[in-house]
Design a protein that fits this description.
Length: 247
């Protein structure tokens, strides 16, 4: 891997960290960047998961103390659900043939992009907040399985789940989303480090950018025009899905 590739991945990681915090769609930036420097789809996916751990670390370190002032029981339950789901997703990926993964990736990316583009509708559903801890926990496990397996768009899914099934305000749901996905990514990353084809140079370069992007996410989100960014990234995700399907 050339120095130019390393710089490119650091920059892409920074963008992924910011976009991941704002929209929950970090993999739409980071995954194609890893493909662009020559990694195979399966190697790019496991390397991407390892790198994205840094996003959760950065964003939680920036403002995670606020979470401790909320419902700690929900926080602990969500952490356990994320850990279990992330582990199941990682095992599923490691046991799935590479050809099968390459076939399903375009559909996963498309699902993530559609989730992002329909985010306003999901938020409107949140006008009727009802605390349903059992349903919320089960939903978080399912999304964390997807997060451990691939993960693009999982942030939007967690955010929507929290807004619909809990009474958390948007700002706290955004913080919780970063923490829970960080846990799912971390447990999956451990499995990939031990048994997966992680490209360590690419993972380190991407993680440096992701850490910086995740750290800058909370303050920057207050200043960026999130609505245009959401639409651009969503449309870009659909374009990526088409490109992957045709490729």
């Amino acid at each position: 891997m050339s120095p130019v590739d390393v710089v490119f991945l650091i920059a892409a990681g920074f963008g992924a960290g910011l976009i991941g915090y704002i929209t929950g769609l970090a993999s739409v930036v980071s995954y194609p960047a890893l493909l662009a420097v020559g990694l195979s789809p399966i190697s790019a996916n496991v390397t991407n998961t390892v790198s994205l751990v840094a996003v959760g670390i950065g964003s939680t370190a920036q403002s995670g103390r606020v979470l401790l002032d909320g419902d700690r029981r929900r926080l602990i339950g969500g952490a356990v659900a994320s850990l279990v789901g992330g582990a199941i997703g990682a095992v599923t990926l490691l046991l799935t043939p590479a050809d099968a993964f390459e076939a399903i990736v375009p559909f996963l990316v498309a699902l993530a992009a559609v989730a992002l583009l329909t985010q306003p509708m999901l938020r409107r559903w949140a006008t009727r907040h009802q605390d349903r801890p059992g349903v919320w926990m089960f939903g978080l496990v399912v999304i964390s399985v997807y997060g451990g397996y691939f993960g693009a768009g999982a942030g939007i899914m967690v955010l929507a789940l929290m807004l619909v099934l809990t009474s958390e305000p948007l700002w706290r749901a955004t913080l919780s989303k970063s923490l829970f996905l960080g846990i799912a990514n971390t447990v999956a990353a451990v499995g990939f480090m031990l048994f997966g084809p992680v490209h360590w140079t690419a993972a380190l370069a991407m993680a440096i950018g992701c850490l910086a992007g995740g750290w800058c996410g909370p303050p920057v989100v207050k200043r960026l025009p999130a609505e245009p960014l959401r639409i651009v990234v969503g449309l870009g995700g659909l374009g990526l899905a088409v490109w992957l399907a045709l490729g």
